[in-house]
Design goal:
Blueprint: H1 18-30, E1 33-34, H2 43-46, E2 50-53, E3 56-62, H3 65-79, H4 87-103, E4 116-120, H5 122-135, E5 139-144, H6 151-156, H7 158-166, E6 170-176, H8 183-192, E7 196-201, E8 208-211, E9 215-219, E10 226-230, H9 233-249, E11 251-252, H10 267-277, H11 282-289, H12 293-307, H13 312-321
Parallel strand pairs: 5-6, 6-7
Antiparallel strand pairs: 1-3, 2-3, 4-10, 5-8, 7-11, 8-9, 9-10
Length: 343
């Protein structure tokens, strides 16, 4: 709403404005409220006191008063040395939240955060990731789709990785085979030493980060400006199982990719051939393998030349004949059976 921007609410969770106090209290009593009712109090979203309902994005659900109290106490511990001025107001706010928490019990009697939480905005995602990193003591499992990792992407999470390494946390990363060609990834792994183990596959699932088998983060939209924080034990266990099965199928980054057994056809072209045989379009194949559409089409052209196919239809037949469709082991095509230029 015009005239009610976040700059008109310059306060923290320890001293809510009158409107924020009223709306948050109403949300706690009801369990949720329509998003439009919070338009005049953007401070509640900015302070993560309200967040989107994962079942209906037109509604907002409140962060439990117990969780808010935990945040406040943690903030007090970090800031008390730097500023004594905020202690009084934070204690008063703690008493206010404690009183409100006694009025409404936490769902299911639990004192922890919700099983599924929507993180709206990159800043909130980064803050949640930093919090999970600080609490992590054993292992981190990640799946990184796409192609070559840009150095900016690697640098973004470097501080978390270094903190984990310092505490002896084991890290395992899954990438696509294309990521092997990125110098940034190799430099990152060299910097991390033995703390990180990496493997690659033709294609992987969407991005996943799993801390200590207790909390997982996955994207909530295509732009990755929203994420889901998952703490439900069944969901987290399922994602951990998926990771372990992919890990067993993956090839260590330090090991070479297996030979296709067909002269002139690379491992990547074998993967493209299998996806073509499944009927996928060029853009879908490129996305799944982490390459550009232009690169994908260049590989398809080389496949056609090597297999002696003059059209896409004929290419499909030759892919099946060569066993590149995954139905049977690949066979070696003798020179002269395919294109006159076959090697």
């Amino acid at each position: 709403m015009a005239g009610h921007g976040a700059d008109e609410h310059p306060h923290g969770a320890d001293r809510l404005c009158e409107a924020g106090d009223r709306v948050y209290s109403r949300a706690v009593r009801r369990g949720r409220l329509p998003r439009r009712e919070a338009e005049r109090v953007p401070c509640l979203m900015e302070l993560a006191l309200l967040h989107p309902d994962p079942d209906d994005m037109d509604w907002l659900v409140p962060t439990s008063p117990q969780e808010v109290m935990t945040r406040l106490l943690r903030g007090m511990y970090d800031e008390v040395r730097a500023s004594q001025r905020r202690v009084g107001s934070a204690v008063a706010a703690f008493e206010w939240y404690a009183g409100l928490g006694r009025q409404v019990p936490a769902p299911g009697g639990a004192s922890e955060g919700p099983a599924i939480r929507v993180l709206d905005g990159l800043a909130r995602i980064q803050a949640a990731m930093d919090e999970a990193t600080q609490a992590c003591t054993t292992e981190v499992l990640t799946v990184q789709p796409g192609g070559i990792r840009r150095e900016a992407e690697l640098s973004e999470g470097l501080h978390r990785a270094m903190a984990l390494r310092g505490r002896g946390v084991r890290m395992r990363d899954l990438y696509t085979h294309v990521a092997r060609h990125g110098h940034g990834l190799l430099s990152y792994l060299e910097l991390m030493g033995g703390a990180v183990e990496a493997r690659t596959l033709d294609e992987v699932i969407e991005r996943l980060i799993l801390f200590d088998r207790t909390v997982a983060f996955i994207p909530a939209n295509a732009e990755r400006t929203m994420a889901l924080e998952l703490r439900h034990p069944a969901l987290v266990e399922y994602l951990g199982t998926v990771f372990e099965r992919l890990w067993r199928l993956a090839i260590p980054l330090t090991a070479p990719l297996p030979d296709t057994g067909i002269e002139g056809i690379s491992h990547r072209e074998q993967s493209i051939a299998a996806l073509l045989a499944e009927g996928h379009q060029d853009a879908v194949i490129a996305e799944r393998l982490g390459i550009s559409v232009r690169t994908c089409r260049a590989h398809i052209a080389r496949l056609s030349e090597t297999l002696g196919a003059a059209s896409r239809t004929q290419l499909g037949v030759r892919i099946a004949q060569a066993g590149l469709d995954g139905a049977r082991p690949p066979v070696v095509i003798p020179p002269g059976r395919g294109s006159p230029t076959a090697r």
